[in-house]
Design brief:
The protein is an all-alpha fold. The chain folds into two domains: 33 residues, no CATH class; 35 residues. It is built from three helices and no strands. The N and C termini lie far apart (41 Å).
């Protein structure tokens, strides 16, 4: 589950000023951490648009397979 590493990373960052420890704490965080409902909604909308684009191009994409 994600909650444990995030808590651990936060604890490490909050209790240390050592750059190496702070870097280790940052390793626990996801690359794109969505904070707040507006950020989540915006990202969801963007992903929905991308999925629609993928689905629109699916026939063409699948027709380009190469048989070795």
């Amino acid at each position: 589950m994600v909650k444990r590493p995030l808590r651990e990373g936060h604890r490490m960052a909050a209790t240390s000023r050592n750059p190496k420890t702070l870097a280790a704490a940052a390793a626990f965080l996801p690359l794109h951490l969505l904070l707040g409902p507006d950020a989540y909604q915006r990202a969801s909308t963007k992903l929905d648009g991308r999925r629609q684009n993928f689905e629109a191009w699916q026939p063409f994409t699948l027709s380009t397979s190469f048989e070795a």
